[in-house]
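[Discussion] Sanity-checking designs against the backbone

I'm trying to build intuition for which residues belong where. Below is a structure token string of 323 positions. I'd appreciate it if someone posts a full sequence so I can compare it with mine line by line.
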């Protein structure tokens, strides 16, 4: 029987214990407070201890369905019914959450999900990423990062995994994506992202997307919470047995289209809509109504997310096609 203590920073939870607390560390000389749950299960099967699952939310801190799901997991998970250990960080990017900031951390204007595994001597976002990666994500046997559409984005739920070149890790990451139960699976690399950095470090990882536009509808939160329960059942961490297989569509390319101008965005398609190569997906206009840019589909596929804001800036994403 394992007596392993689960420890992150100044917080710890012994076997059969659940601990909520706030770790404080320095970011560019200022205190940074990061709330989290540590749940250390008491169940064992045949004297074999369970894995460590790390779940994070709020890397993009206005993606509220994902944060609500992480909060629900941390609040509800019972260590007496858990085999293994779970670390839940519901809002990684706390300054952005407070500021209701889209995409970036207001401490440095950087996208936190483009700087992992971080840099202890870098910008504020890089220092946050470094602390979380070293102290939290590196403890994982399996890692799930919860996301959704930002305040100005609508999307159809999908799960992303990365092929790192490590066959064992990649097979388990794909298995996690399938088990999570969301229909669309996307194979993609996003440099500096949580799940890619973790996969490269040998940790099977996925990034799950559900919800958007500042709304945390029950069905979008449930996409995340049900996926987490399915995954923990699959890993024999909670009772219930292996979940039934869920149908899925595998998309090998994640094709983003970005604005080349500041102006007004007029989409011509909706999320989950099938599109064809060369199809007009929308246009960017100036104030007078002159078309500055037409967004054309680069492949046959499906619209996975779309920016719903009329206002658009140069280099902003417009939408993405899964192909």
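Best answer:
Here's mine. Compare freely.
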């Amino acid at each position: 029987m394992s007596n392993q203590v689960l420890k992150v920073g100044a917080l710890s939870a012994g076997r059969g214990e659940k601990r909520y607390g706030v770790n404080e560390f320095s970011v560019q000389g200022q205190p940074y407070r990061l709330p989290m749950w540590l749940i250390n299960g008491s169940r064992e099967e045949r004297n074999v201890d369970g894995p460590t699952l790390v779940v994070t939310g709020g890397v993009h801190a206005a993606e509220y369905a994902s944060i609500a799901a992480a909060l629900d997991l941390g609040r509800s998970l019972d260590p007496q019914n858990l085999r293994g250990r779970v670390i839940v960080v519901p809002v990684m990017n706390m300054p952005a959450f407070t500021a209701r900031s889209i995409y970036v951390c207001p401490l440095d204007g950087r996208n936190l999900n483009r700087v992992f595994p971080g840099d202890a001597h870098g910008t504020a976002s890089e220092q946050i990423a470094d602390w979380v990666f070293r102290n939290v994500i590196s403890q994982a046997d399996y890692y799930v990062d919860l996301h959704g559409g930002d305040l100005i984005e609508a999307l159809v739920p999908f799960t992303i995994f990365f092929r790192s070149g490590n066959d064992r890790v990649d097979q388990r990451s794909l298995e996690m994506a399938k088990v999570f139960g969301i229909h669309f699976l996307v194979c993609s690399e996003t440099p500096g992202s949580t799940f890619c950095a973790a996969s490269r470090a040998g940790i099977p990882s996925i990034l799950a997307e559900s919800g958007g536009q500042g709304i945390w509808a029950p069905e979008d939160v449930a996409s995340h919470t049900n996926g987490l329960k399915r995954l923990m059942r699959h890993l024999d961490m909670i009772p219930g047995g292996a979940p039934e297989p869920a149908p899925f569509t595998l998309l090998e390319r994640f094709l983003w289209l970005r604005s080349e101008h500041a102006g007004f965005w007029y989409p011509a398609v909706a999320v989950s809509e099938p599109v064809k190569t060369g199809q007009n997906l929308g246009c960017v206009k100036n104030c007078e109504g002159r078309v500055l840019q037409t967004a054309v589909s680069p492949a046959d596929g499906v619209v996975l997310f779309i920016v719903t804001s009329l206002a658009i800036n140069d280099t902003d994403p417009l939408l993405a096609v899964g192909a």
